[in-house]
Design goal:
9-stranded mixed beta sheet, EC 1.1.1.193, binds zinc ion, Dihydrofolate Reductase, subunit A, 5-stranded mixed beta sheet, binds ligand AOF, APOBEC/CMP_deaminase_Zn-bd, about 375 residues, Cytidine Deaminase, domain 2
Amino acid sequence: MQHPDSYFMEQAIRLSAKGRPLSPPNPAVGCVIVRDGEIIASGFTQKAGGHHAEIEALTDAERRGVNIEGATVYVTLEPCSHYGRTPPCALALINHRVGRVVAAMKDPNPLVAGKGLAMLEAAGIPTACGVLEEEAWESNRGFFTRMTRGTPWVTLKVGASIDGRTALPNGESQWITGEAARQDVQRLRSESGAILTGIGTVLADDCRLNVRLPGRDPAEIRQPLRVVVDSSLRTPVTARVIGEDGLCLIVCAKADPKRKAELEMRGAEVIELPGSDGRVDLRALVSELGRREVNDLLAEGGATLNGALLDAGLVDEIVVYTAPILIGEGRGMWSVGPYKRLAEAERWAYRSVSRLGEDLCFDLRNQRK
Ligand code: AOF
Ligand code: ZN
């Protein structure tokens, strides 16, 4: 039988997923409050500046009129101890006289880093830490990666035919994968802090790269930053990726002042990050996005940008949607290599395979660590 602590932590982790679209740059945390083996209140992280998971659960308890004094609190991340956008959750739990606090893992944020649990202990509230830690780490891998590495977790996404083609030689690509896979891409986007693409994709598809969730009020959706790698600033002023929300960052190697001004007039931000080869320094870009508090970066470019990201060792995860269509000649998923020996090629590990309508979705992780 599963230990009750793992059982309730699993519920908290499941609940945390609901916060993922809104919480960034905060981690999406879940919290359940338990008495006599029953969940009596719960909550998850709201949008940054709003309630943390614990405060949501305390508010939920109040709304339900349940007494939480002496109850056990399960939370997927150590309660915070600092005054950030919101006051410390550890303090709120102390004031509500909860009986015990179980955290899945410590908060690597240097502002917290064990102090939340220490505060609780100092107030006489027993704590435990490390229940379903791996699952909890996975649930906020972007935030934890940014906190420890300073850069976002980078996921590269491709939609391709079973023969690994993303478009016909003439560029036609709509649509290779089916509706369910495309919906899943919307979910990935909605959980990302930024979406990255290249100028080739912007010119070929005039993509918007925004989040569109049917049945949801657009005003309620947090839109990720859209980032275009555009070495020589060829993005048309009318490109749909610029949008009207001021959330488009165009990164070039050298900016022609007139073009820069034109694009900025349209609401895009233009920055220069020159690499040694006249192209954009992708490593510097990823660091810049880390500084801008992007936890999860979703790369949705073509073969050139994908290859450059992979060759630079900047990708943590690859998500491939493959459709049962045979295209033959066409554009590839990524131009990596070329390698002289198979041993030089980077080997990845499958983490999961799932079926999405007619298509399959492969989730891969790199073997570096
Ligand atoms: C929690 N519960 O649900 C989350 C936490 O600026 P603030 O006040 O919103 O604090 C943000 C920091 O709090 C964030 O960087 C992370 O360390 C922690 N997130 N903590 O107790 C939560 N989301
Ligand atoms: Zn908190």
